[in-house]
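@channel sequence for tomorrow's demo:
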Amino acid sequence: MPKLPHNRTWYLKKLVKKAKLCVKRRDNWTCQRCGNIVEGANCHASHILNVGSHKSLELDPSNMKVLCGMPCHLSWWHKNPLEASEWFHKKYPDRFEYLKRIAEQKIKISTVDLAELHDNTQGDGSDFGEKYYKLIKEIIK
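C-alpha cells (generated this afternoon):
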C-alpha cells in the first residue's frame, strides 16, 4: 500500500468540513428549530450525538442538523439536552432510530477510505452525503 500524503487527522478535519457543508445544503441554510434562515458564522451544523462519545458518527450527515448559533445551538441545544433530545426524536423519528442503530455498531473508517472519500468528493459538500452512505454500506456488510 502506498504511503498517503496526509495523516488521519488531516483527512478527518477536511471531511468534517465537507459533511457540515453537506448538512447546511440539505437543511437549506435554515435553523431546524426556529426556522430562521442563517448564514455565515451563525449557521452551525451541530452534531446530535456528541463526537466525544460517538466518534464513529462524526462524519455522518444524519448525525447533524443546522441550528442558528446563539439562541438555538449554544443557548438551547447544549443547555437543555433532555428537551433537545425529545425534540429531535419527535421531529426526526427515522433519523433518531437510524442513529441509535448505527451508534451501536462502532464503525471505524480506515484512513485509506477517508483519503478516498476526501479525494472523490466535492469541496462544497454537494456529493458528500451520497458517497459517505455508499462507503458505510460497504463497511457494514
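heads up for whoever presents: The first strand starts at residue 43 and ends at 47.
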